[in-house]
Write a structure and sequence with these properties.
The complex is a heterodimer of chains A (149) and B (508). Chain A is mostly helical and 149 residues long. Helices cover 70% and strands 0% of the residues of chain A. Chain A folds into two domains: 3-62; 75-138, no CATH class. Chain B has 21 helices and two strands. The chains are: A mainly alpha (149), B mainly alpha (508). Chains A and B meet through helix 1, helix 2, helix 3, helix 4 and helix 5 of A and helix 8, helix 9, helix 17, helix 18 and helix 19 of B.
Chain lengths: 149, 508
C-alpha cells in the first residue's frame, strides 16, 4: 500500500468525478419529457465518486506509513516491452500482422532474457505465421497480413 | 416440457461433435491456465473470447453462442482443477482459490504422497462439479420462474446487491473497491445512450459512439496487468517440483476424504450461489470446517488428506454455483462470471430468466456440456497429471510476450481498430498500478458489464413511478434486495471496526 499513490489517485478520481458532474450538465434532456433523462445517472455517479475520493483522501492522512520493503523493479525491461508494444499497435495496420508480430515477439523475447537468438527467431516466426494463416486463410478472418506496396 | 426433457435436449447439443471438441479444448486450456501461476481464470476466459468469436463466426447465432460459452465455461471450471497442481507440487498456488491447498497438499507431496493428493483433488473436483450441476439443474427452473416476475425496480435493486456484494468483499479497502465500482459504472455510460439515443461523453469521436469495449478493458486490466507485473517484479520460483510416484489414492485415502468431499461440495455450492463470495472464500471456509469436524485437528497442516479434499471440492463447487445467478437472474456474482456474461451479450443473448425460454439450447447445452467437461477433466487429470505439471516449467521469457501477442490478436480480430490496442495497453498499465495498490479491478469489470443494465432498469422504474425514488423501497422484493445490499457493505465494515479479520475474495 503506497500512501502517495493513494493520495494522487484519490485526487485523480476526484477530478474524474468532477468532470462527469460538469460534463453531464451538457447532455441534453430527453425529448420524451420523461422525468429521468440521460444525464441523471452519470451525474450521480460523479457525485458518489467525489465523495468516495474525499473519503480515501481522508483515509490516507489517517493510516500509518508503512516502510514497505520495495523490491527492485525492472523498469528498463518494462519500458522496452511497453514501448515496443505501443510501436506494435502503431505498425500493425501499416506493415501488416505477420511482420509486426514477429518483430515485437523477437524484441520482447530478447528483452526478457538476452542470448539464444535462434530459438527466439523460430518461436516468433512460427507464432506470427501460424496465427495469421490459421486465422486469415483457414478460418476466413480478416487481418492485415502483409504490407501493400 | 419438463426439466429432464430440456436436459436431454441439452445433452443432444453438447454431444454434437464440434461441441465435444469445444468442451475438450476448453477444459485443456483451463487446466493449463490453472497450472500457470500468473494467468487466472479471469484473464484466461477474457483472452479466449475473441478466439472463440472468430472460430464460431460462420455458425448461426444461437449455435455459435452455445459453442463458445461451452468452451469458455470449460476454461473457468478447468482452471479450478489445474490450480491445485502447483499448490501441491510447488507450494505456489496457481489460483487464489487453491491457496489453502498448499497447507496440506504440499506437505503430502513432501511425504511422497503427491500423486494421492493430486488424484484426490481431481476426484473431489469431479464430485463437486457433479453435485453443483445437479443443484443448478434443480434450481434453474424455479429461480427463473421467480425472476420472470421481476419488474425494473426489482432488477435495479438486485443488480445493486450484486455490485455491493462484490465491492464489500473485494480487496482490503472497501473505499477503494467502491471507487472502482463507481468508476466502472461511469465508463459504462460512455457512448450513445440506449434509451434516448443521445451521445454521452463522446466529444464527437466516432470511435466512442459504441462505448468502450468491455473485452478490451477486461483483457487489458487482467491479462496485460498480470504480464506487466511479472515483467517488473519477476517473481523467483525456486523450489524443486515434487516427484509423483503413485497416482491412485489408497483405500484409506478414499475413506478419509469421502465425507470432506461431500461437505466441501455442498458448502462450496451455496457459497458460490451467493453473489460476491466465490471460490476463494469457499475453499477457506471448507478448510476451517474440516478442521473443526476432524477428530485430530492438529494433523492439519501436516499432510492431512481432508485438508486437500475439502477445499478442492469447495472451490470447484463454487464455480458451478456461481453459474446459477448468472444464468437464471442474469446477474454475475464474480469477475469471471461477469466476463462470461459479457461473452453472451456479444452474441446478443441476454442471460436471465428469459434465457431458458428464448435460448434453451444455450442454457441447457451449457449445463449438459459441464457434465461432460467434468468427466473429461477427471479422465484427463488422472493419467496426465505429470504432463500438466510440466506446463509449470514453461519459461516466462516466451510465455509473457506471447500473452501480449495473443491479447493484441484477440482485441484486433474483434474490434478492427488500433484505438482498442492503445486502450488495451493503457488498461494494462492501469491494471498493474491499481491492483498493486489494492484497488481491486474485478468490481470495475463487473460494473462495466452491469452499468448499462442498471441504468436502463433504474430509468424504466422511475418512469413507471413518475420519478418517485420511493418505488425502490415500496416494492417488497426490491426493498429486501436493497437491505441485503446495505448489509453486505455494512457488516464487513462493522467487523473491521471491531478489529475482526475479514477474509477477502481475490480473483485473478
Amino acid at each position: 500500500m503506497s500512501k502517495t499513490f493513494d493520495r494522487y489517485s484519490s485526487i485523480v478520481f476526484l477530478l474524474v468525478g468532477l468532470l462527469f458532474v460538469i460534463e453531464s450538465q451538457k447532455i441534453s434532456d430527453s425529448a420524451y419529457g420523461s422525468t429521468v433523462g440521460p444525464k441523471i445517472f452519470p451525474m450521480w455517479l460523479g457525485v458518489i465518486l467525489i465523495l468516495l475520493s474525499l473519503r480515501l483522501l481522508y483515509e490516507t492522512f489517517k493510516y500509518k506509513t508503512k516502510t514497505a520493503s520495495e523490491s527492485k523493479l525492472q523498469y528498463k525491461k518494462f519500458i522496452i516491452i511497453l514501448t515496443s508494444a505501443v510501436l506494435y499497435a502503431f505498425l500493425l495496420e501499416k506493415v501488416g500482422y505477420v511482420i509486426s508480430t514477429f518483430l515485437f515477439l523477437l524484441i520482447a523475447f530478447q528483452t526478457m532474457e538476452r542470448g539464444r537468438l535462434l530459438p527466439s527467431v523460430i518461436i516468433a516466426a512460427v507464432f506470427s505465421l501460424s496465427i495469421y494463416y490459421l486465422f486469415a486463410e483457414f478460418l476466413g478472418g480478416s487481418l492485415p497480413g502483409f504490407p501493400v506496396f | 416440457m419438463s426439466t429432464l426433457q430440456f436436459l436431454a435436449d441439452g445433452f443432444g447439443i453438447a454431444f454434437q461433435w464440434h461441441n465435444l471438441l469445444f468442451a475438450f479444448v476448453g477444459v485443456i486450456i483451463g487446466t493449463a491456465v490453472g497450472v500457470l501461476p500468473g494467468i487466472g481464470p479471469m484473464s484466461g476466459v477474457a483472452l479466449l473470447i475473441p478466439v472463440t468469436a472468430t472460430i464460431t463466426s460462420g455458425m448461426p447465432t444461437d449455435a455459435a453462442a452455445a459453442s463458445s460459452i461451452i468452451l469458455l465455461a470449460g476454461v473457468y471450471y478447468g482452471a479450478m482443477y489445474g490450480g491445485s497442481t502447483t499448490s501441491i507440487l510447488l507450494n505456489t498456488p496457481g489460483e487464489s482459490s487453491s491457496v489453502v491447498t498448499t497447507l496440506d497438499g504440499y506437505q503430502m507431496a513432501r511425504q511422497g504422497r503427491a500423486g494421492a493428493a493430486l488424484a484426490i483433488s481431481a476426484i473431489g473436483s469431479f464430485v463437486a462439479g457433479i453435485i453443483s450441476l445437479i443443484g443448478l439443474v434443480l434450481l434453474a427452473e424455479p429461480l427463473s420462474n421467480i425472476a420472470i416476475k421481476f419488474g425494473p425496480a426489482e432488477y435495479f435493486s438486485l443488480m445493486l446487491l450484486g455490485l455491493a456484494a462484490v465491492s464489500g468483499l473485494a480487496g482490503k479497502s472497501m473505499t477503494k473497491a467502491l471507487m472502482m465500482t463507481v468508476f466502472g459504472l461511469m465508463l459504462g455510460t460512455i457512448g450513445i445512450d440506449a434509451v434516448s439515443g443521445i451521445a454521452r461523453f463522446t466529444y464527437n469521436q466516432p470511435i466512442l459512439f459504441s462505448g468502450l469495449e468491455f473485452l478490451t478493458i477486461a483483457v487489458g486490466l487482467f491479462a496485460l496487468g498480470e504480464v506487466f507485473k511479472t515483467v517488473l517484479e519477476r517473481d523467483h520460483e525456486d523450489g524443486a517440483i515434487a516427484k509423483i510416484n503413485r497416482i491412485l489414492p489408497t483405500k484409506q485415502d478414499m475413506k478419509d476424504s469421502a465425507v470432506p468431499i461431500v461437505r466441501g461440495s455442498l458448502l462450496g455450492f451455496f457459497i458460490g450461489v451467493l453473489p460476491g463470495a466465490g471460490a476463494t472464500l469457499a475453499s477457506f471456509f471448507s478448510y476451517m470446517t474440516e478442521k473443526k469436524f476432524s477428530k485430530n485437528p492438529e494433523s492439519f497442516g501436516k499432510g492431512n488428506i481432508a485438508g486437500v479434499a475439502g477445499p478442492e471440492s469447495a472451490n470447484n463447487a463454487a464455480s458451478g454455483g456461481a453459474m446459477i445467478p448468472l444464468l437464471t437472474l442474469g446477474i454475475p456474482g464474480s469477475g469471471t462470471t461477469a466476463i462470461l456474461m459479457g461473452a453472451l451479450i456479444m452474441y446478443n443473448i441476454q442471460p436471465g430468466p428469459l434465457l431458458f425460454d428464448e435460448h434453451p439450447e444455450v442454457a441447457w447445452g451449457l449445463i449438459a456440456s459441464m457434465f461432460i467437461g467434468n468427466l473429461m477433466l477427471l479422465v484427463l487429470n488422472m493419467p496426465l497429471v505429470r504432463v500438466f505439471a510440466k506446463i509449470i516449467q514453461t519459461p516466462k521469457k516466451y510465455l509473457l510476450p506471447i500473452i501480449v501477442a495473443i491479447s493484441f490478436f484477440g482485441v484486433y480480430a474483434v474490434q478492427y481498430t488500433t484505438f482498442d490496442l492503445y486502450l488495451l495497453l493503457g488498461c494494462g498499465v492501469a491494471g498493474y498500478l491499481l491492483s498493486k495498490n489494492d484497488f481491486p479491478v474485478a468490481p470495475l469489470v463487473l460494473a462495466l458489464v452491469l452499468g448499462p443494465m442498471i441504468e436502463n432498469n433504474m430509468r424504466r422504474a422511475l418512469t413507471i413511478s413518475n420519478g418517485e425514488f420511493s418505488i425502490f423501497f415500496t416494492k417488497p422484493l426490491s426493498l429486501v434486495f436493497i437491505i441485503a445490499a446495505a448489509a453486505w457493505l455494512l457488516i464487513p465494515m462493522l467487523l473491521k471496526l471491531k478489529g475482526r479479520a475479514v477474509i477477502v475474495e481475490e480473483e485473478g
